[in-house]
């Protein structure tokens, strides 16, 4: 054995904090979990994994919580917001002095208190979060029958697979002693501080851009309902003002009834659209700007000299006219599977997170089925005239207005949730962690939250007023953030987890000793990472290679998507009728 390795093996425990935090009973300098910094880089994956296995054993012995379906359907809160946190957890835990006052029992009981959601409740949350198929018809329309159904199926499967990867890492790193609360926590434990900051920034940015996207969409809703008589720049402003007051509600429990109502509104709009589209022509009036045909071949949605529009047509394979338009349509469809960024938050509230896997696959299958039936139905009847959102492609003004009005209500709820969650991600992971701001539950935190809300919504309004090209903007959001959150980060995180886990040589005395807090490692740096990458058996090495390729392919898709979406935006803004802060509606034609 080399001298350097021998010194490392016999080194004292790595963790150092003030004397008050020492575990006197063991006679060591081992620092208990509650006495560490919230994101202590000295805590190794071996320690996270040890406590995670201990927690899983306890949770597996618990009785499965029953899902209060009657309460859910009535809109009553059914997650951990009903459980009051112990007094010991009410302070700002980013301050070391507050953590030193917490005992072992208080720390673990506080973590248990936040975990009450059942598998059925999480199924409901997943389907509520990402059920919104109104972009699917245009995705199929820009890709054609074969590629559209194929790509949508493929992306649906890999969205589920990414959810499985997040579940796998969560099960191996989350514990009562070291609870994983959000997406960034998994990145931190697998790759370190930089990865955590990048993940948190990307999640907050995604939620902010989604808020801007919703503002654009429902600004156009209001514009269309007014028959374009209302100056367009005022339309998103109306939406922002109402959304601003909704976001002042800090706790999600107060969204219970209206959030439940929103999903039924969306389903009602779907059934109305399908019935009206089957018995009426497409909405030719907006086909030149918002349809699938406008993205891939504008001549297929342009009227002739006599004012007659081309007949409905379908592509069986990928249209050759515009690769940029087809990729843009695909990115609009990817928006349907963007819920993975909240999966960690869902698992963090489950009493038995092991059950998350089966309900996640069930929810993905349910969502995929609903999306595919609706998307194919709309494309069959409207062909190249399908729009995003699809309900604006209804030609009968009365039914068009019904769709706009119902989705406007649901959109306000969604916008309030995006604003609420986005601000919390920003506040908890940037202001509290980096600048030691007080928790949101404190009086000062409440004032800070209220002050951030108007700034957040102002940014959303500026985005909406400056970028009237809804189709292109959704493509930009998907390529820059949503693809990464759903498809790029999960294989990257699981790679870091698997490499570190299989780098441990238990037969050589490596690992974590809970009695002393000692972490023994006989190698470090690149040598250890390569050892972990090539360890675990042939199957594990093959999975490491597969996850590397999955990560690189997803990253490449993001790059290609960004190129296509930016090119599409440039082309859209070459139209002199599309300008920032305009009074003319983007849906209005000459």
Automatic annotation (TrEMBL):
Q: Where mainly located?
A: membrane
Q: Where are the transmembrane segments?
A: 121-143, 149-167, 198-218, 230-247, 254-274, 323-344, 365-382, 402-427, 447-467, 473-495
Is Secreted given among the entry's keywords?
A: no
Q: Which domain of life is it from?
A: Eukaryota
Molecular-function GO term, any one: L-amino acid transmembrane transporter activity
Q: Where in the cell is it found?
A: Membrane
> What name goes with this protein?
Amino acid transporter transmembrane domain-containing protein
User: What's the source species for this entry?
Assistant: Acrodontium crateriforme
């Amino acid at each position: 054995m080399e001298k350097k390795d021998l010194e490392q093996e016999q080194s004292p425990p790595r963790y150092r904090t003030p004397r008050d935090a020492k575990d006197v009973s063991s006679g060591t300098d081992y620092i208990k979990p509650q006495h560490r910094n919230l994101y202590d880089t000295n805590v190794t994956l071996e320690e996270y994994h040890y406590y995670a296995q201990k927690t899983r054993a306890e949770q597996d012995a618990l009785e499965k919580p029953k899902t209060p379906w009657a309460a859910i359907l009535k809109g009553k809160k059914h997650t951990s917001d009903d459980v009051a946190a112990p007094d010991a957890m009410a302070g700002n835990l980013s301050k070391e002095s507050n953590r030193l006052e917490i005992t072992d029992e208080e720390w673990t009981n506080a973590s248990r208190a936040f975990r009450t959601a059942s598998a059925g409740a999480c199924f409901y949350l997943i389907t509520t979060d990402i059920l919104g198929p109104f972009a699917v018809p245009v995705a199929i329309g820009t890709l054609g029958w074969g590629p559209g159904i194929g790509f949508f199926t493929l992306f649906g499967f890999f969205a589920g697979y990414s959810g499985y990867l997040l579940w796998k890492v969560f099960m191996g790193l989350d514990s009562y002693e070291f609870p994983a609360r959000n997406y960034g926590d998994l990145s931190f434990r697998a790759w370190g501080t930089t990865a955590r900051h990048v993940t948190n920034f990307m999640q907050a940015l995604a939620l902010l851009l989604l808020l801007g996207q919703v503002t654009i969409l429902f600004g156009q809703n209001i514009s269309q309902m007014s028959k374009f008589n209302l100056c367009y720049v005022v339309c998103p402003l109306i939406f922002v003002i109402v959304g601003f007051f909704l976001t002042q509600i800090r706790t999600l429990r107060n969204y219970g009834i209206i959030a439940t109502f929103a999903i039924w509104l969306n389903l009602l709009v779907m059934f109305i659209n399908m019935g009206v589209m089957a018995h009426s022509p497409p909405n030719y009036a907006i086909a030149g700007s918002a349809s699938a045909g406008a993205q891939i071949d504008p001549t297929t949605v342009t009227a002739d000299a006599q004012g007659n529009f081309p007949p409905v047509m379908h592509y069986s394979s990928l249209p050759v006219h515009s690769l940029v338009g087809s990729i843009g349509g695909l990115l609009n469809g990817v928006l349907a599977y963007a819920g993975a960024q909240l999966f960690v938050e869902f698992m963090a509230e489950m009493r038995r997170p092991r059950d998350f896997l089966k309900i996640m696959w069930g929810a993905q299958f349910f969502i995929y089925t609903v999306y595919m039936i609706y998307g194919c139905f709309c494309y069959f009847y409207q062909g190249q005239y399908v729009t995003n959102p699809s309900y604006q492609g209804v030609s009968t003004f009365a039914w068009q207005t019904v769709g706009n009005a119902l989705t406007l209500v649901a959109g306000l709820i969604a916008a309030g949730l995006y604003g609420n969650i986005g601000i919390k991600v920003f506040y908890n992971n940037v202001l509290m962690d980096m600048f030691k701001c007080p928790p949101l539950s404190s009086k000062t935190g409440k004032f800070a939250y209220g002050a951030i809300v108007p700034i957040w919504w102002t940014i959303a309004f500026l985005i909406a007023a400056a970028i009237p090209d809804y189709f292109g903007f959704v493509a930009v959001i998907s390529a820059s953030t949503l693809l990464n959150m759903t498809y790029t980060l999960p294989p990257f995180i699981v790679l870091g987890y698997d490499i570190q886990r299989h780098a441990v040589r238990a037969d050589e005395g490596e690992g974590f000793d809970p009695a002393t807090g000692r972490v023994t490692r006989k190698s470090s740096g690149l040598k250890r990472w390569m050892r972990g990458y090539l360890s675990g058996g042939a199957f594990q090495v093959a999975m490491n290679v597969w996850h590397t390729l999955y990560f690189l392919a997803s990253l490449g898709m993001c790059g290609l998507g960004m190129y296509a979406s930016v090119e599409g935006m440039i082309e859209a803004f070459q139209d002199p009728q599309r300008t920032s802060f305009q009074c003319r509606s983007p849906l209005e034609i000459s």
